[in-house]
Amino acid sequence: MWRVGAFRTAKGLRSLPNQSEIPHMVVSAKKHDGEAVVLTPPVVSASAAPALPTSTPTASSSTAPSPTPEPTTKVKRVGGGHQKPKPISMAELSNDLVRVRVSNWLWLLKISASAFYARVDAGNIPEPTGKDGPSNKRPYWTAGVVRSFLEQHQP
What we know:
By secondary structure, the chain is α+β, with helices and mostly antiparallel strands.
């Protein structure tokens, strides 16, 4: 409920013209002389006030709009997402217990990760000896398998 007859502007409190023509209940703000109008709520006496509920409203039942989330900025990936070549020495390849990873293959063959996986799919590079890691997804080859492959494919 809003009190009819007065409104607030940037210049202060003003009265409305032709108050008899204005409806008793004003629901929305109106404009007067190009200024925004904010109507003040009515003054209600204690005897005329309706009974209020005894329970306190919860946060979920409030009608206040929820704050809009801040726009997130997309973080640009650095590095392209593929593995980078990692050097491995011939001394390490002489030990048959050493596990050779994809990054080591990239360094040995001087190719990209996409080219490496394409060659594995085509059968030009032997299948991994095994997989390990947190969810058994990281392929590895034993040094003996890699040594025999390199001996067969050296120019």
